[in-house]
Amino acid sequence: MSSLRTRLLTLATIATVFTMAVMDGTSAHANQSSLPAKTIAIEIDNFKFGIVSVDVAQGTIVTWTNRDDVPHTVVSSTKLFKSPPLDTDEKFSYTFKDAGTFEYYCSLHPRMTGRIVVK
Ligand SMILES: [Cu+2]
């Protein structure tokens, strides 16, 4: 009788430790994915931004590259950043330090729009 009780207690202990380990792993992963700055590459091709909307962590560097044969620009709707006209294969980068939603467009072709959401 007492040995069954001991075994149940042992099982309960193992289950608790296992659950705590899993929860720990989950929170560590959540912290990891939100903290480090990343780099994101967005290609401009066929009069479109290759990634129309993307969620990024604060501090992320976004680099746009023009793959079209005509110039394009990357201009923030709130004047936060503004690239010069980018010729074929030219790049423009901006570091998103603050949280928020940042809409942008090409000033030469205003129907080309994109969005960076900084969490
Ligand atoms: Cu354009």
Question: Could you outline the blueprint of secondary structure elements for this entry?
Answer:
Layout: H1 2-34, E1 39-45, E2 48-49, E3 53-56, E4 60-66, E5 75-76, E6 91-96, E7 100-105, E8 113-118
Parallel strand pairs: 1-4, 3-8
Antiparallel strand pairs: 1-2, 4-6, 5-7, 7-8
Please explain how this structure is put together:
A hairpin with a 2-residue loop joins strand 1 (39-45) and strand 2. The protein has one helix spanning 2-34; strands at residues 39-45, 48-49, 53-56, 60-66, 75-76, 91-96, 100-105, 113-118. 28% of the residues lie in helices and 34% in strands. It starts with a helix and ends with a strand. Residues 16-35 have low confidence and may be disordered. It folds into two domains: 1-35; 39-118, Cupredoxins -  blue copper proteins (Immunoglobulin-like, Sandwich). The longest helix has 33 residues, at 2-34. Strands 2-1-4-6 form a four-stranded mixed beta sheet, with no helix packed on it. Strands 3-8-7-5 form a four-stranded mixed beta sheet, with no helix packed on it. With 119 residues, the protein is of the alpha/beta class. Copper (II) ion is lined by residues 72, 106, 108-109, 112. Residues 72, 106, 108-109, 112 line the site of copper (II) ion.
